[in-house]
Amino acid sequence: MASAAIFIADPKQSQERLQHENVALRDGIDSTSICDEIVGSSAALQKVLSLVSKVAPTDASVLITGETGTGKELVARAIHRRSHRSSGAFVSVNCAAIPPDLIASELFGHEKGSFTGALQRRLGRFELAEGGTIFLDEVGELPLETQIALLRVLQEHEFERVGGTRSIRTNVRVVAATNRNLQAAIAAGTFRSDLFYRLNVFPIDMPPLRERREDIPVLVEYFVDHCARKVGKNIQGITKESLDLLRSYPWPGNIRELQNVIERSVIMCETENFSVDKTWLARQPLATEPKIPLDLSEKLAAQEKEMIEAALQESGGRVFGPSGAATKLGIARSTLESKIRSLKISKNSFKDFAETIPRRSCLESVQ
Ligand SMILES: Nc1ncnc2c1ncn2[C@@H]1O[C@H](COP(=O)(O)OP(=O)(O)OP(=O)(O)O)[C@@H](O)[C@H]1O
Ligand SMILES: [Mg+2]
Hints:
It contains 16 helices and nine strands. By secondary structure, the protein is α/β, with parallel strands linked by helices.
């Protein structure tokens, strides 16, 4: 817990108000950390924490989605810690960090001589996680053939080591995460829909920090305290200007970015009042720039979807006719309709209400 209380160093504010805010921030931390590290009291985070409590005791697969740095791994660990598997291992695998030709051996192990360089038998991460939980981070990066093997684990609870012939039974809970749109990957043919449904038994979507700004002050206090201890500094307060700046920034890198900015600021801090250098927050939001570049087919599918949605928006959801989206895009109605289906676009969401239902009838239906 915070050794140094954070106050707002604004000379205009009364001492009483400062004390009040100290208590509020401190209480925020005390009452909102369900386990050591998940800090925040926003309704959006509370909803996530309640899903965690519900799903943790079960053995259901969980798919955690959300932008980079929103706390997906933290939540995966919380699920493991609160499950009956907590005394077993929590094995984390970043599927994006392992070359595609090695991922099967990494997950399922290999037998001696199964490929050049396989000098001895090696256990995979599933065997290491036996009785515990495996966390498959960036699961959207798995090559298609590994997706089939993973599907078999989820359905039949067994797998074979690379180069092996014996089926190995497994008792491992799978929690997966991704910051990619798996629906778009399915539409582009790079992710199997049957695997998606198996993983997505219990979805948890992590809200970005900009949608839960009320968590920022309490996270700031938590990280300042943590970093100040680490570097042996005594930080007593934060300037009001800095707190306002931190509150208003869009945080494209979410909590990880906040944590890094604070760590850097604590290292640079030369007084007891913590402040943040504006120029460190000058980056533009990266929301449209995924961490892992999309491959060509996904990029094309995403661009196609964007163009179709823009045309539907303009046409108020009308597909055909002189002012319909097909005419605007210069393609046949049937082509557009099949693309709308394959890209899972909801054309109804573009329907222009005012155009389809006369204003008078809206009023009438309200009365
Ligand atoms: N609510 C929170 N309270 C405290 N620390 C948090 C919170 N959420 C995230 N963090 C911290 O922010 C950092 C990023 O979290 P995490 O690695 O879980 O994010 P992620 O969603 O898995 O990111 P990526 O998509 O980049 O893998 C970690 O250091 C984590 O401890
Ligand atoms: Mg992660």
